[in-house]
Target: IRG-type G domain-containing protein
Amino acid sequence: MSYWEARNGEEIKKHVKEHGVSGIDEFVKKRLESWKKEDVDIGITGDSGAGKSSFINVLRDLYEDDDGAAQVDVKECTKEPTLYIHPKYPNVKFWDLPGIGTRNHPDLVTYRQKVQLDKYHTYLIFASNRFTENDIILAQEIKKQEKSFFFIRTKIDEAVRAEKRKKSFNEYEVLLKIRRNCKENLVDEAGNPISGENDIFLISNHDPEKWDFSQLTEAILDALPRYKREALTMSLNALTSLSKDILKRKVQILYGRMILVAAASGGVAAIPVSGLSIAVDAALIFNEIREYIAQLGIPLEGSKIFEMVSYVTQKAIVDMHLMFSSKASILSLFAKEAATGVAAEEIVRFIPVVGSVVASTLSFGCTILFLRSCLKKIEKVALAVLEEANQRSVDNLDHE
Model:
């Protein structure tokens, strides 16, 4: 039983205990959409030119010249907290924060009042060279508030490129030296480290598939409580950072949602499945499968990403979109794939999680099995797209 299955199962069980099966359809639909209403506020600070804007654009899946993109290469210091909202999910917000020691925020007391430090759920402190004394002061204050923070050394691509000119170049040694310098720099007045090495990340916003970009994204997610972690994970585009780890996290959440869909599938909106003695909510299942396709970044035919992948992968994409193109096609596939004997095993497995009232229906077990089969197919195509995009990125780096 996965973490997300268990947590969602607990919510279903609680609802049934308090209300019976009455209103479970509405409960499930609200829960499936709830991550889009869960506010996530990430505070980002550091020197001007450290790459904050580029990072904000990457996480929001925007190019530098897109509408709403954060301006890059701006030399002026941030004077007040500047909000950048995710273009698709307005509940996910990135705040470009001013630094301490500026004219508007000369000390910690003023900074705390004007910037509202308690507003943000986690903090990212950027530097393109050395972290400053003010960065350390800020981190100590965040620590007092029991909030998470991460130190991010940017422009690693430039540092590595500069070292490549030397005969003795060794990328591992270069990164080790940079990381060690960061760690030695991040100490309090008594010389004690204020952060563990695991909280220091070396990244390039231009090469998010390299170095610590993916690990940083995962660390941010792990620092957030459950619902905020779900919201941020679902807002990220795995293709942007070319990260299998982010893709897997999305898949885990999507697997966890199946228990919710299955619980409501046999409700008032259910329609009979041809050839089977069960009824399911075709619209709910169809919408959930379309969510899988969107979340795992399956490109549309004719899109830029579609044109970049091989013919074999293009065919798999086209076939998959056709397979899940309508409620009718979903019901037809459901009828073919539903295996009543195996569904009974799923029912037994989930009874302790959601209770016998919900799990004992045949539609519950069949819906979970069907959704699992669909997600496996979609994940396989998504991994193929991701691997080819990764290979293209490696080839481009090799030609630099």
The beta strands are 40-46, 82-85, 92-96, 122-127, 148-153, 200-202, 271-272, 279-280. The mean pLDDT is 85.
